[in-house]
Amino acid sequence: MKKKILIIDDDPAVVDYLTTLFEDNGYAACSAMTAQDGLKRAQKERPDLITLDLELPDEWGPRFYRKLSSDKELKNTPVIVISGLSGNKYAVSKAVASLSKPFDRDELLKIVKENV
Amino acid sequence: MSRTILIIDQDMELTEALAVYLERRRFDVHLADSADMALKMINDLDPEIILADPNIPDPDNIAALQQIKSLKPKIQFIIYTLPDTFEKAMELFQSKAFDYIKKPVSSIELDLSLKKAGKWIALEKKIERNSKKIKDLKNAQALFQQLFDEVPCYITVQDKNFRITATNRLFKKDFGHEIGEFCYKIYKHRTTPCTDCPVAATFKDGRRHQTEEVVTSKSGEQYHVLTWTAAIRDEAGQITQVMEMATNITQIRQLQDHLTSLGLMLGSMSHGIKGMLTGLDGGIYLLETGINRQDPKRTHRAFHQIHVMVERIRKMILDILYFTKSRELEYREIELKKMIRSITDIVQPSASHHNIELKVTTPPASVCIEVDPDWFRSAMVNFLENAVDACSSDTTKDKHHILLNIFLKGTDHVCFEITDNGLGMDRETREKMFTLFFSSKGSKGTGLGLFIANHVIRQHGGTIAVESEVKTGSRFEISIPRTRPIKIL
What we know:
heterodimer; A: 116 residues; alpha/beta; Rossmann fold; five-stranded parallel β-sheet; 4 helices; B: alpha/beta; Beta-Lactamase; 4 domains; 48% helix; 23% strand
């Protein structure tokens, strides 16, 4: 079965890009534009990996991550932060990687491959 | 120091006797046997007193004596003469001679006369010195007045009640000539003294105080000023008045504000730019893989994506350019319908893309308006694009529409009413939407669009009214004068 990736980003252009990129590389992808929706999706879809933007319209990325890790079933899901904010490395310290926009897609695919 | 005295008399025996007497009295005595001879001597000798027998029958001698007096008016003349010509001498010399003595000369008379002359000379010298001092003082005062007037600051001198007792030229130019008015009234149009007044502080402790204030000139302009105060003391050292010097730093402050916002803008913008670049990367990825796989659907999507991203980047760059360069409006007369068509041409594609109906109603008659077409268009496009965004982000309704209704208001205004049934705004968004860098659109917004649109409308002398309700939609009413306003603040 294909590994599933949940994309959380409020910019439709970025969501579209990541979805296509992951699907082209043999993953299944689903997406959410808000933190609230992202959490619901995660609980429903049980993704193998999550990419997370730090600035979401309803909530700040790190807070979303705290909510995610308080869910027993989800807390071990690897998270890759993909954000336009500089210095985002420290925002979610338990993230498996932090990439800043615009990111290198080969690097992203490599990190994804290592973590699912 | 001994006084120099010149004796003029034909009678050399008498003059020599007088000389001996006077030298004993510590005078520096010189002799001349005629006025002509004296005339030749006076320049080098420069005597203070001349003792002369005018030798009345000799008109040349008298004329020469009078010439000496007019050449050297400071020399004090003591005329001595025989009793029978005494009155004649007085007639001739009048008040030009200091004193008249009869021959034979009595020593006591001569002593007294010379003493008086000495006193007189000393007095005249003192007067001369003082009048020179007064003249210097006057010059200095004129110089200080000139400095006071020409200093490129606003200077006021104030009493304990903050009444202005003196002002310099620049102050008069920008704040008026009133003397005796209250500082707080002239500068700030207040009816009571300001809190934290530097003048009051200086009256209290005698030290200098510095503050930064915003003041309003008589023509209603606001200036940022940096004020310094200094105490003015009387002879006893008591502070009687305080001088306040205010330097206009408006330009510096404006520049600083501009730089600050520029920095803020670049900071807030870098995030947006990064998002756009990522979107552009996505478009390029789609294009690349679309071409490789010969997938026309994907290639088509790629073009759309790149198009949208390039538009967003273009708009952001134009916003930055607008912001970094404040420019004057370039007014042109343009037909209203033509202007509206050029606006809807830009907005129509994105409205259609999101399935939003754009309905436009215009006044039937042909109307011309005077605006800066480029900036006015970009402002209107901004409002309409916001309406498109408000509709496309709203998922609660099946059908969306934007109504652009243009109508004439009175004889001199034209109104652009934009109504949408999109997301609507809450109170906070409504109040903040025209402020710099406020955006309700997350990563899509830069916070510049409405700020600039608002600025452009105000530059045109126009107004914007907003009504909005969450989930129902928004209504903007933009009203501008049909012709260029006379003065724009």
